[in-house]
Structure formats: C-alpha cells, structure tokens
Amino acid sequence: MESIKDFFNSISYGQLFRIAILMLSGVLIIRTIRFFMDRTFFKKSNLQNKMLISKLVNYSGFLILFIIILSELGIKLSALLGAAGIIGIAVGVASQKSLGNIISGFFMVTEKSFEIGDVITVGDKTGTVYSVELLSIMLKTFDNLLIRIPNETLISTDVINITRFPIRRMDLYLRVAYDSDLSLVKEVLQTVAKCNVNCLDEPNPFILIKTFEESGIGIQYGIWFEKTNYVETRNTIVQDVLAGFKSAGIVIPYPHITVTNPLPVSEQESP
Question: For a FRET experiment, which of 100, 179, 182, 263 has its CA 20 to 30 Å from that of 85?
Fold first, then answer.
C-alpha cells in the first residue's frame, strides 16, 4: 500500500500535464485516422467492413496510447510483462476461443456472404444482421430479440442469406382434388400471378405438378417479387389463389374422418 502511495507521490505536475496532453492528442489522432479512413478507404465499402475495421483501429490505437502513458510514468513494460507472465499464460489459454472467433470474423468479412441489414438464417435462428463485432455478430429477430452468434459458429454452419438479391421467389405448396382440370388449375395460377401487383412479370411464375397425395394432387407454385414486399405479397397471393380457385370451381381437398357406428344403438346398451 505504501509503495503505491509513494509511486503516486513521485509523479510531478509536469508528468501529469504531459500525460493529459498525450491522452488528448492520442484520442484526436485515433479519431482523425478513423475520419480519414471513412472518407478514403471506406467511401465505397459496406457498413459491415466499416464497423469491424473501425473497432480494430480503436482497440489498437488505445492499446498503443496506454503503452505510451505507462512509459511516461516510468513503468518498464519488460518488468510488467515478466511479473504478469503466469497470468498471461492463463489468459492466453482462456482466450484461444476468442482468438479463433476474431480470425473467423476476418474470413467472414472477406467472403462477404452477408452485410448489416440482411436477413439471414443460421441453424434454427432467423433475423436481421444488427451489428458485426470482432468476436460475434448480433441478430435482431422479427419478435425484437437480440441473438449473439459467435463467428466460429458462422464459419462452421450453413448461413442462408434470404435478402441478398433484390428479388426472391415465394413458394406455395397447394393441393387440388383428383378430378380437377389441371390445365384450368395452371391457367388460374398464371392469371393470379399476372393480376397481383406485387408479382413480377419476369421471371415467369413457376408451376410444378409435383406429387400424388392421399387427398389430392400436390402442386408447387412459385411467384417472384421484390424482397421489400414480402408480407404484402404473402398475404395477397394466398387470398388471390383462394378466390381464383373458388371462382373456377377448383376444390382444395382436406382429409376427412368419418366415424361409423357398426352396431345398432340397442345392441350397444349394457343390460
């Protein structure tokens, strides 16, 4: 305790002034570097790269500033590192996972498989990429939850980017009765896609008569739309298909269960 007190008493006002100037100058230099990179290197870069490199510049800059301040205080880094050798080994072992996440993060950035604002699916989790950190990414789900996913998980797991391209295809799996006129079914589905304002004229709607099922014929119906109109397209296309089938007399079958009574009521009554 006395040694710590003596140490602070030994610091002169001149040292305190120089340390204050160093801290102020260091912060200004770090911010200037970030500003310069934003205006030059990152001018055409995406938000994900900007965020990741900006944090790397911050961490590196403040680490260098911390070392310079220690040197100004007369603390020898060699002695400090030697005294902290055992702790450093322990921290190094514990941080292997973190280092792996950082390296995975750089691989992920170079791949450019997604950006901030994209909707992705990782395993059973789907959400909007909210932020990209050195160790992980943050997903914001559609029910407003925040999920942290480590970078190593992203590298070793299939990642589906739902909104990477400006247009998407929405598939509906329909079922019609066996006595339906399949030519009429295809004609109705073509008309529905043509009349729905959210459906694109190109590419053409995808219609595949797919399977024979227990209660009807299975049909895969895919329409193309702009990714920003997902909810509106989903709601209107289902309504339009139902209305089109009803108008054309096309039946959408569903399983029926019929319960029969094999014995007369009188015979089932107990004596």
Answer: 100
CA-wise closest residue to 187 among 127, 104, 244, 106: 244
Environment class of residue 120 by beta-carbon count within 10 Å: exposed (0-12), middle (13-18) or buried (19+)? buried
Q: How many Å apart are CA 249 and CA 243, to the nearest integer? A: 10
Question: Mind listing the pLDDT tens digit for each residue in 61-110?
Answer: 777 877 777 777 666 665 555 545 545 554 555 556 666 676 777 777 77
8-state DSSP, 201: S
Q: DSSP state, 210?
A: E
| Beta carbons within 10 angstroms of residue 149's beta carbon | 19
- CA–CA distance, 75 with 69 (Å, rounded to integer): 9
Which amino acid does the sequence have at 158?
A: D
Residue matched to tokens 């400006």: 166
Supply the pTM of this predicted model. 0.59
Please enumerate, as own/partner, the contacts of 226-231 that have beta carbons within 8 Å and a separation of 24 or more.
226/166, 226/167, 226/168, 226/198, 226/200, 227/162, 227/163, 227/165, 227/166, 227/167, 227/168, 229/198, 230/168, 230/170
CA atoms within 13 Å, Cβ hemisphere of 64:
10
Contacts of 57 (CB under 8 A, 6+ apart): 30, 33, 34, 37
